Amino acid sequence: MSLTPDELLTTTRTVRRRLDVTRPVEREVIEDCLRLAQQAPSGSNAQKWNFVVVTDASKRARLGEIWCRGADRYLASAEMNPQPSQTERLLDSVRHLAAHIHEVPVHLIPCVTGRTDGEAAFVQAGRWASIMPATWSFMLAARSRGLGTAWTSFHLPFEREAAAILGIPFDDVMQAALIPVAYTTGGPFKPARRRGLGTMVHWDAW
Ligand SMILES: Cc1cc2nc3c(=O)[nH]c(=O)nc-3n(C[C@H](O)[C@H](O)[C@H](O)COP(=O)(O)O)c2cc1C
Q1: pLDDT tens across 57-66, in order?
Q2: Euclidean distance between CA atoms 97 and 36, whole angstroms
Q3: Ligand 1: which of 151, 179, 190 to mutate, most ligand atoms within 8 Å of CB?
Q4: Average pLDDT for residues 94-99, to the nearest whole number?
Q5: In the chain, N or C: fewer CB atoms in 10 Å?
């Protein structure tokens, strides 16, 4: 797939419905994307990142069950107290992924070493920002190879359970997300509608 940098940045969307769960993803393709992700910045260049790539079907099923618990909570709260951003289209797309999450061929769990529970905000900011740019780079690299991804956090309230399934040392390592990865079923991906810059940009003062 040949995309300009601007096209890549504007069309790397959250893909839930158009994940092709019937097509395997080659290990080499995931490794290529991870090599690109490693080029991202991290605090003090410490590279405290780890990526758990889950392809084992029974582990994906167990993670999927945890993920759906988080999705159910989210959907229940959206039904009780809907927010303007939670359109029926978004909720339907979440419901769709919940029905298929266990079938998505790869679950990527980006992790960062060193828990920050209870630390000052600046410590937390530094630690999380040491895994997020690399993860987003992975998602951009995946998009440029015809793969779809979605940043998701539904399993994180149950992080300890996911750690037990995957052997992640919970006391030393934080999970940042669960990224479902699959080839897309095709079709165009378009830039999203966003609020005008004037609603969020502050030049020289808030
Ligand atoms: C920090 C973060 C957490 C998110 N968690 C979830 C999630 O748990 N489940 C999900 O379906 N989408 C999740 N999303 C995806 C957002 O809902 C998504 O970015 C939003 O729908 C915009 O979609 P777009 O990227 O196609 O514009 C998350 C995104 C971010 C950045």
Answers
A1: 999 999 999 9
A2: 27
A3: 151
A4: 98
A5: C
